[in-house]
Structure formats: structure tokens, C-alpha cells
Amino acid sequence: MLEVNQLQKSFHDEIVLQDISFSGQPGQVIHISGENGSGKSTIFKIIARILKADSGEIHYDSETTIGALIENPGYLEFETGLTNLSFLAKLNHNEDLEKIRRLMADFGLDPDNKRAVSKYSLGMRQKLGIIQAIMEDQNIVLLDEPTRGLDRASLNHFVELVQQLKDENKLVIIASHDFQAGMPYDKTYRLIDGVLQSEE
Ligand SMILES: Nc1ncnc2c1ncn2[C@@H]1O[C@H](COP(=O)(O)OP(=O)(O)OP(=O)(O)O)[C@@H](O)[C@H]1O
Fold it and tell me: ipTM of this predicted complex?
């Protein structure tokens, strides 16, 4: 479903990705760990086609949709969380308001709360970002440091959410510094010096 072959990427003279190859299938959960600046976000940006690799190839089916939480997504700061998510889904003509409301409520965000996103905490913003990456039933879900700022209950819900995505046959790829206990990982990699090392 996703094939990543021999990606290379440099910024100016700095080689960030030397040789990145891996593949993922529907229903798999993949973890990529690595230190700050090792290139995790760069891999996601290339898969999401925000950034071009210097060489190498990415293959996925033409009907595949990608959801992504990468770095700090921008929002309409003076609007509510629900308005923001609904707006983003409408841009793709793919709004399922009931689903958005349910995803928010399940994650402890009251969809009817009138608080503007500018007043959201880091964890609340992360939840919006995670919901945005899955609310349109995307087939491949890329989550970059998704658990930043999440409290214990939200972490537990996140683990359940990833299991649900797996059960729904999504391919979920998570990048983070550390290993989250209880996650249903099928493959784990460590990104070191621009190369992915399998941890199995
Ligand atoms: N647009 C860019 N221009 C120049 N250098 C960049 C650019 N994007 C990333 N880099 C550099 O590439 C390296 C990898 O960055 P990247 O954000 O992919 O790492 P990361 O593993 O996601 O880091 P973190 O864990 O801190 O989020 C860093 O040295 C960064 O400074």
C-alpha cells in the first residue's frame, strides 16, 4: 500500500536522509523514533508530498488519501475547535459533522464549547490535529509527535484510537522521540544518521 524506496534529502550541505526505505500495509501501525533533528518530520513531509526528495521514490495507490499531523498546524485562531475542523473538512468537500463531534467528545473536547482555539492548551491543539488527520477516513495517517501535551487519560484514549484505526485497516505511522507503552506497533524503526534501523 505504501512503498518508500531509497529516499535521500539534504538541506543546503547537510544530509538529513541518506537512504530511507520501508513499506506499510493496511492495518499496520509503524513507529519511527529518533532524536531531535534526525529527520522524522522530513520523511512525513516527503510522504505527504509537501516536500520533494532529492532522489528516491514513494508509491501508493492513486485513490489513497493521506491524513497528517506534522509540526504545529495553523488554525483560525478566533474560531472554535468545531468550526475549525468543520471548515477544514469542507475544503475537501468531505465533512461528516457527526463524526467530527464524536471524535472531539471522545477525546475530551466539548464540541459545543465556544472557546476560541487561541485559548487552547498545547494538548487540546494536539487533539485537534489528530482529529483532523483521521476525520475524513484517510487511508494513511501520519502523526508527528502526536502525544505532545496529552494528559494520562488522553494518552489512553489515543492508544485506543490507534487500535481502532488499525481495526479499520488504516496504515498509521507515528514518529516520536520515545516509545509509548501499549501501542499496537507492527514495526518499529529508529532513525539514525539518515538511515532507518529496524528495531525488531
Ligand atoms: N526547510 C528546511 N530548511 C533547512 N533545513 C531544514 C528544513 N527542514 C528541516 N531542516 C533540517 O533538517 C533536519 C531534520 O529536521 P526534522 O524536522 O525532519 O527533524 P525531526 O526528527 O522531525 O526533529 P524533531 O524531533 O525535533 O521534531 C534538522 O537539522 C533541520 O534543521
Answer: 0.95
Q: What is the pTM of this model?
A: 0.95
Q: So what's the pLDDT on residue 200?
A: 67
Residue 121 belongs to domain spanning: 2-198
Per the document, the length of the chain is: 200
**Residue nearest atom 2 of ligand 1, based on CA coordinates:** 11
Give residues with Cβ within 8 angstroms of 84, minimum separation 6: 75, 76, 117, 128
Please report where in the chains the cell 488499525 appears, as a residue. 166
For residue 110, the domain's CATH number is 3.40.50.300
The binding-site residues of ligand 1, defined as CB within 6 angstroms of any ligand atom, are 11, 16, 34, 36-42
Measured from the Cα of 51, ligand 1's closest atom is 1
Q: Tens of pLDDT along 52-92?
A: 999 999 999 989 999 999 988 899 999 999 999 999 999 98
How many domains does the structure of the chain reveal? 1
Residue 39 predicted with pLDDT over 80: yes
Ligand 1 site-directed mutation target among 17, 32, 42, most atoms within 8 Å of CB:
42
Q: How high is the pLDDT of residue 94?
A: 85
- Among candidates 154, 102, 144, 163, which has minimal Cα distance to 123? 154
14, 16, 72, best to mutate for ligand 1 pocket (most atoms within 8 Å of CB): 16
CA distances in angstroms from 81 to 57, 77, 78, 134, listed in the order given: 36, 9, 10, 15
Mean pLDDT of the region 161-177: 96
